[in-house]
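Progress against Task 2.4 (sequence-to-structure conversion) is shown through the following example record, which the project officer requested during the mid-term review.
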Amino acid sequence: MAHAMPARRGADVMQSVTVQTGAEPFAADGGPVGVLVCHGFTGSPRTVRPWAEHLAAAGLTVRAPRLPGHGTTWRDLNRTSWEDWYGAAERAFAELSDRCEQVFLAGISMGACLVFRLAETQGDKVSGIVVVNPSLAPDTRLFLLTPVLKHVVRSLRGIADDIKKPDETEGGYKRVPVKAAATLPAMWKVTARHLYEVTQPVLVYRSTVDHVVGPASMKVLSAALPPDASPSATSCPEPSSP
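Structure tokens generated for the chain above:
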């Protein structure tokens, strides 16, 4: 059953937001070590909930926020931008920083890009980073065309549920909202430009099969890592969603 959330006001119009079952934000209060876990584009906390629950079971304080426009409908997402998603992640990070002695960042795909940007802006407040299939560059020409496409079409065929494990679903949108996707290149650009400022320990997981995040993103990350470091490639159970 879906859950109704408090109405929000935008452009002087009240809109009711109904969150999909399983897409609710996750929060668990544990010890003095906190972890922020960010889901990907068109996904929701459902994507990272097993990860967040595992960390919480280990006694950590965990937050996995539902990024604006996610976990409801693709039309909601089309009314948001990467700055909105980053703002939600930043607020969750601030809450963890107030509660915990150390805070680590974790994210998948577009969520990984958000946590890298947080590490760039928050500096030594971040103790370490774990990312899965980080999205840091346009891996298809389609994303480069979205600034024009958004004036022509509202959505394209979805990219959710690219999961190799049978009978698994992340509950992502079946359509990609083009206007929201058109903001991704700006996020990639500013994050990639400042990756050299990330000095925290970084653990990178890369699925051996990923039809969404391709070589371009890994090249950006590899170029920014120290010469003696390289991303780890491993099969991982997390789904691929930019």
